[in-house]
Automatic annotation (TrEMBL):
Residue ranges occupied by any VOC domain in the UniProt entry: 6-130, 151-268
Pfam families: Glyoxalase (PF00903)
Alphabetical list of Gene3D superfamilies matching this protein: 2,3-Dihydroxybiphenyl 1,2-Dioxygenase, domain 1
Name of the protein in its database record: Ring-cleaving dioxygenase
Native organism: Robertmurraya beringensis
InterPro entries to which the protein is assigned, alphabetical: Extradiol_RC_dioxygenase (IPR052537), Glyas_Bleomycin-R_OHBP_Dase (IPR029068), Glyas_Fos-R_dOase_dom (IPR004360), VOC_core (IPR037523)
Keyword Oxidoreductase: yes
Keywords: Dioxygenase, Oxidoreductase
Family matches, as SUPFAM superfamilies: Glyoxalase/Bleomycin resistance protein/Dihydroxybiphenyl dioxygenase
Keyword Flavoprotein: no
GO molecular function: dioxygenase activity
Amino acid sequence: MLKTVGIHHITAMVNDAQRNIDFYAGVLGLRLVKKTINFDRPEVYHLYFGNDSGQPGTVITFFPWAHQFKGRIGTGQVGVTSYIIPENSFSFWEDRLQSFGIRFVKTKRFNETYLSFQDPDGLEIELVQRPNGPVNEWNVNGVGPEVAIRGFAGATLLSAKPHMTADVLENVLGLTCFGQEENFLRFQSEGELGNTIDIKLSPSVRGLMGAGTVHHLAWRAKDENEHQKWRERLVEKDYYPTDILDRNYFQALYFHEEGGILFEIATDPPGFTVDEPQIDLGKNLMLPSWLESKREELENTLPPVEVRVLKGEKR
């Protein structure tokens, strides 16, 4: 049986590109690993943030478009994105969030404590201490390897049909049911990162796509051969996947599960060093070959952005 080892990346919608960079790179200390464009709408950036190398299982990506309407988090969406931080680093992150005026609460689920807060567009984020995951060697703006976010812990899904979504996780994607606690049903995969998926069982409002919502969640396929097998499997099970699409840094296919959530399956290779060396990741606007002839036009259209050092509020 095919099994995904976990989350490859998560993609969300936001309004302002510079504000997005300021928060994820400046506050959370993630590395901007790729500055490119939305291949379907090249007048919009596609920004990727992850660990020092942009390893699968660490990358959150964004379509920042100033003119899109505010969305509403609800059914048919990823409700919460969770990140792993090293053990004994909660106090650092509490102090850091407070220094930037970011409100947070502590919650518990499946015997783990989560630090929960929102990004500037309203996306729900959690930090959880776990020993697993490779050390993130990126060091920026006061966030070093000893406290840096290591990658995804997982995600919480808001499904219109929770038990149908559970069936997809278990019997299509190959995750294992860990158990139920109150309003949450937990599944786990075998990877180090992005391996914990909770389905919220209590009702929610219907999700509306827009700024401040997750667009899709992508699962890992180890190579193109396995990717093709995933597509064949989805066709056999009547999930009507898209054709395999070239996203330059990975191959992708998409399908909606019956709870309304858009899933992607993406290949681990070739990765983000296919068009620039690791030392230069995120520094320049990178375009696919078929859009290189429009570079000047796109650079004049896209707003100027940069990774900059931020100072927390004085207290």
